Amino acid sequence: MPRDYYDVLGVARDATADQIKQAYRRLAREHHPDVRRDDPHAEERFKEINEAFGILSDERRRSRYDRFGHAASNARTPEGFDGAGFGGSPFEDLFDAFFGGAGRGPAPRSEPGPESGADLGYTLPISLEEAARGVEREIEFARMETCSVCFGTGSERGGGAVTCPTCSGSGQVRHVQRTALGMFTQIVGCRQCGGAGQIIRDPCQRCGGGGRTEAKRSLTVKVPVGVEDGMQLRLAGEGEAGLRGGRRGDLYVKLRIAEHPTFGRRGTDLFVEVPISMAQAALGDELEIPTLDGGERHALAAGTQPSERATLRGKGMPDLKGRRGDLHVTWRVEIPTALSRDQAKTLQEFAKLRGEKIAPKKRKIIEKVKEILQ
Ligand SMILES: [Zn+2]
Ligand SMILES: [Zn+2]
Protein backbone atom coordinates (compact mmCIF):
# COMPACT_ATOMS: atom_id res chain seq x y z
CA MET A 1 0.00 0.00 0.00
CA PRO A 2 1.46 3.42 -0.86
CA ARG A 3 2.02 5.70 2.10
CA ASP A 4 -0.61 8.19 3.08
CA TYR A 5 -0.01 11.41 1.10
CA TYR A 6 -0.44 13.58 4.17
CA ASP A 7 2.19 11.48 5.97
CA VAL A 8 4.51 11.74 2.97
CA LEU A 9 4.41 15.55 3.15
CA GLY A 10 4.23 15.54 6.94
CA VAL A 11 1.20 17.82 7.09
CA ALA A 12 -2.12 17.61 8.94
CA ARG A 13 -5.23 16.47 7.08
CA ASP A 14 -6.65 19.96 7.33
CA ALA A 15 -3.47 21.69 6.15
CA THR A 16 -3.97 24.79 4.03
CA ALA A 17 -2.80 24.94 0.42
CA ASP A 18 0.06 27.18 1.56
CA GLN A 19 1.18 24.74 4.23
CA ILE A 20 1.15 21.93 1.70
CA LYS A 21 3.17 23.97 -0.76
CA GLN A 22 5.71 24.90 1.88
CA ALA A 23 6.09 21.33 3.10
CA TYR A 24 6.51 20.15 -0.48
CA ARG A 25 9.19 22.69 -1.32
CA ARG A 26 11.18 21.88 1.77
CA LEU A 27 11.00 18.12 1.16
CA ALA A 28 11.66 18.31 -2.55
CA ARG A 29 14.78 20.37 -1.93
CA GLU A 30 15.93 17.92 0.70
CA HIS A 31 15.29 14.80 -1.31
CA HIS A 32 16.12 15.83 -4.83
CA PRO A 33 18.09 12.97 -6.42
CA ASP A 34 20.65 15.43 -7.76
CA VAL A 35 21.35 16.48 -4.20
CA ARG A 36 21.36 13.03 -2.75
CA ARG A 37 23.42 11.32 -5.37
CA ASP A 38 24.66 8.66 -2.94
CA ASP A 39 21.22 7.75 -1.67
CA PRO A 40 19.72 4.93 -3.75
CA HIS A 41 16.26 5.66 -2.38
CA ALA A 42 16.32 9.35 -3.16
CA GLU A 43 14.66 9.01 -6.54
CA GLU A 44 11.87 6.87 -5.12
CA ARG A 45 11.32 9.24 -2.25
CA PHE A 46 11.38 12.23 -4.58
CA LYS A 47 8.76 10.57 -6.75
CA GLU A 48 6.63 9.84 -3.74
CA ILE A 49 6.83 13.46 -2.60
CA ASN A 50 5.90 14.70 -6.05
CA GLU A 51 3.02 12.29 -6.31
CA ALA A 52 1.67 13.32 -2.91
CA PHE A 53 1.95 16.97 -3.85
CA GLY A 54 0.36 16.35 -7.22
CA ILE A 55 -2.74 15.09 -5.46
CA LEU A 56 -2.89 17.32 -2.40
CA SER A 57 -2.18 20.54 -4.29
CA ASP A 58 -5.16 19.94 -6.57
CA GLU A 59 -8.41 20.71 -4.80
CA ARG A 60 -10.48 18.29 -6.80
CA ARG A 61 -8.04 15.41 -6.54
CA ARG A 62 -7.44 16.12 -2.90
CA SER A 63 -11.10 15.83 -2.03
CA ARG A 64 -11.37 12.60 -4.00
CA TYR A 65 -8.34 11.28 -2.15
CA ASP A 66 -9.87 12.29 1.19
CA ARG A 67 -12.98 10.31 0.33
CA PHE A 68 -11.60 7.27 -1.45
CA GLY A 69 -7.95 7.09 -0.43
CA HIS A 70 -5.32 5.74 -2.78
CA ALA A 71 -7.86 3.87 -4.88
CA ALA A 72 -9.14 7.23 -6.09
CA SER A 73 -5.90 9.12 -6.41
CA ASN A 74 -4.14 6.37 -8.27
CA ALA A 75 -6.83 6.33 -10.89
CA ARG A 76 -5.31 9.36 -12.53
CA THR A 77 -7.71 8.79 -15.37
CA PRO A 78 -7.51 11.05 -18.36
CA GLU A 79 -10.79 12.74 -17.49
CA GLY A 80 -9.63 13.30 -13.95
CA PHE A 81 -6.60 15.11 -15.18
CA ASP A 82 -6.78 18.71 -16.06
CA GLY A 83 -4.36 19.75 -18.73
CA ALA A 84 -3.35 22.81 -16.78
CA GLY A 85 -1.86 20.64 -14.10
CA PHE A 86 1.49 22.28 -14.36
CA GLY A 87 0.11 25.77 -14.06
CA GLY A 88 0.97 26.97 -10.60
CA SER A 89 3.38 24.12 -10.13
CA PRO A 90 6.12 25.09 -7.74
CA PHE A 91 8.66 23.46 -10.00
CA GLU A 92 9.69 26.76 -11.52
CA ASP A 93 10.59 28.46 -8.29
CA LEU A 94 11.97 25.26 -6.89
CA PHE A 95 14.42 24.75 -9.71
CA ASP A 96 15.15 28.44 -9.80
CA ALA A 97 15.98 28.48 -6.16
CA PHE A 98 18.09 25.43 -6.45
CA PHE A 99 19.83 25.49 -9.75
CA GLY A 100 19.70 29.17 -10.55
CA GLY A 101 17.14 28.63 -13.26
CA ALA A 102 19.33 26.32 -15.27
CA GLY A 103 17.16 23.82 -17.07
CA ARG A 104 17.92 20.64 -15.21
CA GLY A 105 15.45 17.95 -14.47
CA PRO A 106 15.34 14.32 -13.46
CA ALA A 107 17.42 11.96 -15.53
CA PRO A 108 15.68 10.67 -18.66
CA ARG A 109 13.71 7.49 -18.15
CA SER A 110 13.37 4.61 -20.48
CA GLU A 111 10.24 2.54 -20.97
CA PRO A 112 9.28 0.77 -17.76
CA GLY A 113 10.42 -2.82 -18.09
CA PRO A 114 10.59 -5.56 -15.48
CA GLU A 115 11.75 -4.26 -12.12
CA SER A 116 13.50 -6.54 -9.64
CA GLY A 117 12.12 -6.79 -6.13
CA ALA A 118 14.15 -5.21 -3.36
CA ASP A 119 16.50 -7.22 -1.20
CA LEU A 120 15.53 -7.43 2.44
CA GLY A 121 17.62 -7.65 5.59
CA TYR A 122 16.85 -9.46 8.81
CA THR A 123 18.95 -9.58 11.98
CA LEU A 124 18.87 -12.91 13.77
CA PRO A 125 20.27 -13.07 17.29
CA ILE A 126 21.71 -16.45 18.30
CA SER A 127 23.75 -17.78 21.20
CA LEU A 128 27.37 -18.94 21.08
CA GLU A 129 26.19 -22.52 21.67
CA GLU A 130 23.85 -22.24 18.67
CA ALA A 131 26.71 -20.90 16.57
CA ALA A 132 28.83 -23.88 17.65
CA ARG A 133 26.23 -26.53 16.93
CA GLY A 134 24.17 -24.94 14.19
CA VAL A 135 20.49 -24.19 14.63
CA GLU A 136 17.22 -23.91 12.76
CA ARG A 137 15.14 -20.87 13.56
CA GLU A 138 11.69 -19.76 12.45
CA ILE A 139 11.60 -16.10 11.41
CA GLU A 140 8.69 -13.92 10.36
CA PHE A 141 8.84 -10.68 8.40
CA ALA A 142 6.75 -8.51 6.08
CA ARG A 143 7.47 -8.19 2.38
CA MET A 144 5.77 -7.00 -0.78
CA GLU A 145 4.01 -9.77 -2.68
CA THR A 146 2.40 -9.77 -6.11
CA CYS A 147 -1.21 -8.68 -5.60
CA SER A 148 -3.50 -11.69 -5.57
CA VAL A 149 -6.42 -9.76 -7.06
CA CYS A 150 -4.85 -8.22 -10.15
CA PHE A 151 -1.86 -10.62 -10.37
CA GLY A 152 0.48 -7.69 -10.41
CA THR A 153 -1.05 -5.90 -13.35
CA GLY A 154 -2.38 -3.16 -11.07
CA SER A 155 -5.65 -2.95 -12.93
CA GLU A 156 -8.96 -4.09 -11.55
CA ARG A 157 -10.77 -5.58 -14.51
CA GLY A 158 -7.89 -6.19 -16.80
CA GLY A 159 -8.11 -2.62 -18.06
CA GLY A 160 -4.34 -2.65 -18.27
CA ALA A 161 -2.00 0.24 -18.66
CA VAL A 162 -2.39 2.96 -21.23
CA THR A 163 0.14 5.46 -22.46
CA CYS A 164 0.16 8.52 -20.26
CA PRO A 165 -1.67 11.31 -22.11
CA THR A 166 0.39 14.04 -20.50
CA CYS A 167 3.85 12.92 -21.52
CA SER A 168 2.86 10.58 -24.37
CA GLY A 169 4.76 7.82 -22.66
CA SER A 170 8.12 9.53 -22.29
CA GLY A 171 7.75 10.00 -18.56
CA GLN A 172 8.95 13.58 -18.94
CA VAL A 173 7.38 16.92 -19.59
CA ARG A 174 9.07 19.82 -21.31
CA HIS A 175 8.36 22.97 -19.44
CA VAL A 176 9.06 26.35 -20.92
CA GLN A 177 9.79 29.12 -18.52
CA ARG A 178 9.91 32.79 -19.35
CA THR A 179 12.11 34.94 -17.19
CA ALA A 180 13.63 38.36 -17.46
CA LEU A 181 16.76 36.70 -18.85
CA GLY A 182 14.95 34.86 -21.55
CA MET A 183 13.30 31.55 -22.10
CA PHE A 184 14.42 28.39 -20.41
CA THR A 185 13.31 24.93 -21.19
CA GLN A 186 13.17 22.47 -18.39
CA ILE A 187 12.53 18.80 -18.59
CA VAL A 188 10.77 17.56 -15.51
CA GLY A 189 9.34 14.20 -14.50
CA CYS A 190 5.73 13.72 -15.55
CA ARG A 191 3.48 14.12 -12.57
CA GLN A 192 0.53 12.21 -13.92
CA CYS A 193 2.38 8.92 -14.38
CA GLY A 194 5.18 9.54 -11.90
CA GLY A 195 7.67 9.19 -14.76
CA ALA A 196 6.58 5.67 -15.70
CA GLY A 197 5.09 6.77 -19.03
CA GLN A 198 2.00 4.69 -18.46
CA ILE A 199 -1.03 4.95 -16.25
CA ILE A 200 -3.37 2.25 -15.02
CA ARG A 201 -6.81 2.74 -16.50
CA ASP A 202 -8.79 1.01 -13.78
CA PRO A 203 -6.66 0.61 -10.66
CA CYS A 204 -7.00 -2.49 -8.50
CA GLN A 205 -8.84 -1.73 -5.27
CA ARG A 206 -6.66 -4.07 -3.25
CA CYS A 207 -3.20 -2.83 -4.19
CA GLY A 208 -4.18 0.67 -5.33
CA GLY A 209 -2.71 -0.02 -8.77
CA GLY A 210 0.80 -0.73 -7.49
CA GLY A 211 0.53 -4.42 -8.31
CA ARG A 212 1.86 -5.51 -4.93
CA THR A 213 0.61 -5.75 -1.37
CA GLU A 214 2.43 -6.27 1.89
CA ALA A 215 2.19 -9.76 3.36
CA LYS A 216 3.72 -11.70 6.23
CA ARG A 217 6.18 -14.40 5.40
CA SER A 218 7.60 -16.96 7.79
CA LEU A 219 10.36 -19.38 6.98
CA THR A 220 12.95 -21.55 8.64
CA VAL A 221 16.53 -20.32 8.59
CA LYS A 222 19.22 -22.97 8.83
CA VAL A 223 22.24 -21.53 10.60
CA PRO A 224 25.25 -23.70 9.76
CA VAL A 225 27.84 -24.84 12.30
CA GLY A 226 30.71 -22.44 12.97
CA VAL A 227 29.28 -19.07 11.94
CA GLU A 228 30.83 -15.86 13.20
CA ASP A 229 29.19 -12.73 14.50
CA GLY A 230 28.08 -10.44 11.64
CA MET A 231 28.03 -13.16 8.97
CA GLN A 232 25.16 -12.96 6.51
CA LEU A 233 23.17 -15.82 5.06
CA ARG A 234 21.68 -15.13 1.65
CA LEU A 235 18.29 -16.68 1.01
CA ALA A 236 17.87 -16.29 -2.73
CA GLY A 237 14.43 -15.23 -3.91
CA GLU A 238 13.07 -14.55 -0.42
CA GLY A 239 13.08 -10.75 -0.81
CA GLU A 240 10.28 -8.66 -2.26
CA ALA A 241 8.34 -9.61 -5.36
CA GLY A 242 9.41 -7.87 -8.57
CA LEU A 243 7.24 -5.73 -10.80
CA ARG A 244 6.15 -6.48 -14.35
CA GLY A 245 7.74 -9.91 -14.29
CA GLY A 246 10.98 -8.78 -12.62
CA ARG A 247 12.84 -11.25 -10.44
CA ARG A 248 12.35 -11.45 -6.70
CA GLY A 249 14.90 -9.85 -4.39
CA ASP A 250 16.93 -11.84 -1.87
CA LEU A 251 16.76 -11.99 1.88
CA TYR A 252 19.96 -11.39 3.82
CA VAL A 253 19.92 -12.79 7.35
CA LYS A 254 22.60 -11.16 9.47
CA LEU A 255 23.70 -13.23 12.45
CA ARG A 256 24.31 -11.54 15.76
CA ILE A 257 26.00 -13.78 18.30
CA ALA A 258 25.20 -12.71 21.83
CA GLU A 259 28.03 -12.05 24.27
CA HIS A 260 28.58 -15.22 26.34
CA PRO A 261 28.67 -14.96 30.15
CA THR A 262 31.50 -17.52 30.42
CA PHE A 263 33.45 -17.66 27.16
CA GLY A 264 35.29 -15.12 25.11
CA ARG A 265 35.94 -15.88 21.45
CA ARG A 266 38.57 -15.05 18.84
CA GLY A 267 38.03 -16.94 15.61
CA THR A 268 37.83 -20.59 16.59
CA ASP A 269 39.62 -20.10 19.92
CA LEU A 270 37.63 -19.77 23.12
CA PHE A 271 38.85 -18.21 26.36
CA VAL A 272 37.69 -18.89 29.88
CA GLU A 273 38.81 -17.71 33.30
CA VAL A 274 38.56 -20.32 36.07
CA PRO A 275 38.76 -19.23 39.72
CA ILE A 276 40.85 -21.47 42.01
CA SER A 277 41.75 -21.07 45.67
CA MET A 278 45.24 -20.43 47.02
CA ALA A 279 45.29 -23.94 48.46
CA GLN A 280 44.18 -25.52 45.17
CA ALA A 281 46.92 -23.66 43.33
CA ALA A 282 49.56 -24.80 45.83
CA LEU A 283 48.40 -28.37 46.38
CA GLY A 284 46.89 -29.22 43.02
CA ASP A 285 43.37 -30.57 42.56
CA GLU A 286 41.01 -32.21 40.17
CA LEU A 287 38.40 -29.77 39.04
CA GLU A 288 35.80 -29.15 36.37
CA ILE A 289 36.47 -26.68 33.56
CA PRO A 290 33.39 -25.32 31.78
CA THR A 291 33.35 -26.13 28.05
CA LEU A 292 30.78 -25.69 25.30
CA ASP A 293 30.01 -29.38 25.67
CA GLY A 294 29.12 -29.04 29.34
CA GLY A 295 32.41 -29.38 31.21
CA GLU A 296 35.57 -31.40 31.45
CA ARG A 297 37.51 -32.83 34.40
CA HIS A 298 40.98 -31.38 34.63
CA ALA A 299 43.95 -32.25 36.84
CA LEU A 300 45.34 -28.99 38.22
CA ALA A 301 49.07 -29.37 38.88
CA ALA A 302 50.47 -28.60 42.31
CA GLY A 303 52.19 -25.22 42.30
CA THR A 304 50.05 -23.65 39.57
CA GLN A 305 50.89 -19.97 39.15
CA PRO A 306 48.33 -17.19 38.60
CA SER A 307 49.88 -16.33 35.22
CA GLU A 308 49.78 -19.90 33.99
CA ARG A 309 47.40 -21.03 31.30
CA ALA A 310 46.08 -24.37 30.24
CA THR A 311 44.96 -25.27 26.73
CA LEU A 312 42.27 -27.81 26.02
CA ARG A 313 42.89 -28.85 22.43
CA GLY A 314 39.83 -29.18 20.24
CA LYS A 315 37.48 -27.67 22.83
CA GLY A 316 37.07 -24.33 21.07
CA MET A 317 34.59 -23.23 18.37
CA PRO A 318 34.20 -25.13 15.13
CA ASP A 319 34.88 -23.31 11.86
CA LEU A 320 32.52 -23.59 8.89
CA LYS A 321 34.19 -26.90 7.97
CA GLY A 322 33.66 -28.24 11.49
CA ARG A 323 37.33 -28.05 12.56
CA ARG A 324 37.45 -27.01 16.18
CA GLY A 325 39.85 -24.57 17.79
CA ASP A 326 41.18 -24.70 21.36
CA LEU A 327 39.89 -23.60 24.72
CA HIS A 328 42.37 -21.44 26.61
CA VAL A 329 42.04 -21.48 30.39
CA THR A 330 43.42 -18.71 32.59
CA TRP A 331 43.60 -19.49 36.31
CA ARG A 332 42.39 -16.79 38.60
CA VAL A 333 43.95 -17.53 42.00
CA GLU A 334 41.72 -16.03 44.64
CA ILE A 335 43.48 -14.69 47.75
CA PRO A 336 41.13 -14.74 50.74
CA THR A 337 40.20 -11.26 51.89
CA ALA A 338 38.78 -11.94 55.36
CA LEU A 339 40.61 -14.52 57.47
CA SER A 340 39.21 -15.88 60.71
CA ARG A 341 41.52 -15.88 63.70
CA ASP A 342 42.24 -19.60 63.28
CA GLN A 343 42.93 -19.23 59.57
CA ALA A 344 45.28 -16.32 60.21
CA LYS A 345 47.10 -18.28 62.90
CA THR A 346 47.51 -21.29 60.60
CA LEU A 347 48.85 -19.12 57.84
CA GLN A 348 51.31 -17.46 60.19
CA GLU A 349 52.53 -20.91 61.25
CA PHE A 350 52.79 -21.84 57.60
CA ALA A 351 54.90 -18.80 56.92
CA LYS A 352 57.09 -19.56 59.91
CA LEU A 353 57.64 -23.11 58.62
CA ARG A 354 58.84 -21.60 55.36
CA GLY A 355 61.16 -19.28 57.21
CA GLU A 356 59.25 -16.18 56.20
CA LYS A 357 59.21 -13.22 58.56
CA ILE A 358 55.83 -11.60 58.41
CA ALA A 359 54.87 -8.66 60.60
CA PRO A 360 51.23 -7.93 59.88
CA LYS A 361 49.96 -4.51 60.80
CA LYS A 362 48.59 -4.53 64.36
CA ARG A 363 44.86 -4.53 64.26
CA LYS A 364 42.95 -1.95 66.17
CA ILE A 365 41.59 -3.01 69.54
CA ILE A 366 38.02 -2.46 68.36
CA GLU A 367 38.43 -5.10 65.63
CA LYS A 368 39.78 -7.60 68.13
CA VAL A 369 36.81 -7.02 70.40
CA LYS A 370 34.44 -7.48 67.47
CA GLU A 371 36.08 -10.77 66.63
CA ILE A 372 35.82 -12.08 70.19
CA LEU A 373 32.15 -11.16 70.34
CA GLN A 374 31.39 -13.06 67.18
ZN1 LIG B 1 -3.95 -5.50 -7.29
ZN1 LIG C 1 3.27 10.84 -18.03
Short description:
The protein is 25% helix and 26% strand. It has helices at 5-9, 17-31, 42-56, 59-68, 70-73, 91-99, 128-133, 278-283, 341-353, 365-373, and strands spanning 120-126, 135-146, 161-163, 172-179, 182-189, 198-200, 212-223, 232-235, 251-257, 264-266, 269-277, 285-289, 296-300, 309-312, 327-334.
Main β-sheet description: 4 strands, mixed
CATH names the topology of the domain at 115-152 and 210-258 as: HSP40/DNAj peptide-binding domain
- Tell me the structural class: alpha+beta
Strand content of the residues, in percent? 25-35%
End-to-end CA span: 75 Å
Q: Give the number of DSSP strands.
A: 15
Poorly predicted ranges (pLDDT <50, ≥5 residues)?
73-111
Order of helices and strands: HHHHHHEHEEEEEEEEEEHEEEEHH
- Shape descriptor reads elongated
Question: Topology of this protein?
Answer:
Layout: H1 5-9, H2 17-31, H3 42-56, H4 59-68, H5 70-73, H6 91-99, E1 120-126, H7 128-133, E2 135-146, E3 161-163, E4 172-179, E5 182-189, E6 198-200, E7 212-223, E8 232-235, E9 251-257, E10 264-266, E11 269-277, H8 278-283, E12 285-289, E13 296-300, E14 309-312, E15 327-334, H9 341-353, H10 365-373
Parallel strand pairs: 1-9, 11-15
Antiparallel strand pairs: 2-7, 3-6, 4-5, 8-9, 10-11, 12-13, 14-15
The structure holds zinc ion (ZN) (2 copies).
One zinc ion binds at residues 164, 166-167, 171, 190, 192-193, 197.
